Amino acid sequence: MFEAITYDSMLENIKENDISADTIGILLARPKSEAGKNIVDSLPYYHHRSGKSINFYLPGYGAYWYGSYPDEDVENL
User: Containing H/E element for 45?
Assistant: First the structure.
């Protein structure tokens, strides 16, 4: 699994690693939503089952790994 903060960085990573012929999975779901949690919890399974055949990108997820964003709190919106 690669962290992809922006679409451009994801494309750069694909080009640098010469994986343009591979299947690419892009997760667009809030990390704390039920769907997001279910998918992220299952990524190790898919990672090991697919080997080098698929690459997953989770744009923006790195921001949630070290705490929370100020705009995540409803009171701050």
Answer: helix 34-50
Domain, as residue range, for 30: 7-62
What total number of domains does the chain contain?
1
At 27 the pLDDT is: 82
Q: For residue 32, how many C-alpha atoms fall within 13 Å in the half-sphere facing its CB?
A: 8
Query: Whole-prediction pTM value?
Result: 0.61
Determine what percent of the chain is predicted with pLDDT higher than 90.
4
How far apart, in Å, are the Cα atoms of 46 and each of 1, 22, 39, 60, 71? 10, 14, 10, 20, 31
- Report pLDDT for 77: 47
Q: Is 38 exposed, middle or buried (0-12, 13-18, 19+ CB in 10 A)?
A: exposed
Looking at residues 55-62, what average pLDDT do you find? 75
**For residue 71, is it within any domain?**
no
In a domain, 74, yes or no: no
